[in-house]
Amino acid sequence: MKLAALLAGLIGIILVGCSNGPPTGVEQKQNIDATVAAAVAATKTANDVQEKIVAAGVLATRTANDVQEKIAATMNAPAPFPNDPKQTSPWLYRIDEGDIIGLELVHKGNPITYYRSPASLDWYIAAGPDDKADIPVCQQKWSGTPLLLSGPRVTHRLSDTIDDPAVFGLEPPETAITVHDRYGNKVSFHLGIASPDNQNQYARLVGDDTLFTIPIEWAEVVNRLAIAPLYDCLYSIDPRSALVVQFFHGDEQTRYAMDDGTGRWFLDGDEPQLLNQEAWADALLMMSSPRLDQILAHNIDDPAKYGLTEPDMTVAVIVRQGGAHTIEFRIGDLTPDGEHRYVMVQQGSLLSEDPNLYGILNSRIDPILTLATDPVLAE
Length: 379
Prior knowledge:
There is one protein chain. By secondary structure, this protein is α+β, with helices and mostly antiparallel strands. It has 2 domains: 2-227, no CATH class; 239-373. 26% of the residues lie in helices and 27% in strands. A hairpin with a 6-residue loop joins strand 11 and strand 12. Helix 1 (2-17) packs antiparallel against helix 2 (32-41). The longest helix has 16 residues, at 2-17.
């Protein structure tokens, strides 16, 4: 698995120059490859999970009332051992956010892996079965994630043992998470179902029978990393904010404009032509958040080498309503593999400059290029 190789390489480099020990409360890991392999092996189809549930007799004979009664009894039970160090600790675990280099999640049988590139320090999503390469994460959305993963606060320590983890959604877990750090350590934990008050979510550390609850807001954010992966995009805007969409290629121009009075879109010209409004709505949605596939460089000296100067490039401009700043990006030549095009953002949805050189699959960028030459006119 790619994460295993990347982690092993990065950890080897860091350990040569570092003598720091593992972070507090994190299990020392002797073999990352074996751990990651085990996590991969734990990835199951929905049928596999259901078969295990039935075989174990976990839920087959339990009614909804039985479950709620057990949960209520646990929630109302007095907190044991008030002076126990685990009871007084406010954290499920702690790990330094700057040391985190990998994250594995399996949510309801669906796996996803995030890792930090040892070369660029950018975060990526490891390629899945349908992907040809690892995918950059949206750096803007990801920026606070390592801090989030450094450890959640515990709201309750409910018991020292869990007689029936399935009652709390912990066998099998709703979500299984493993966080890797640069020293070769890991922390693994499971998230279960929401508590009856819907303010918390059940959790436990792998290898520890203590039952905890953590804030449901924290758990939902972590779950979304698996449910809605943070794929990177060139920019992100509300498609309803677009007022004019214009393409430039050499001396050729194609301009789409919205009629303020009716809200309908037209191909602009001496005689404006009505667009197919449904097809154009799909096109605007596509252009509102174009997904990117590669970060090829953080700075380039010569844009002409990538077809990103006149007259080779195609320039796309989106003028927005309400004084929002204009979006502008440039589409250049094919990459050497013939499967991507070079793209740069001149002005994105953020005010800060974006100097990166991106690669976008032809299957994603070609429909945008088509709008410059083949308008979606009404019949």
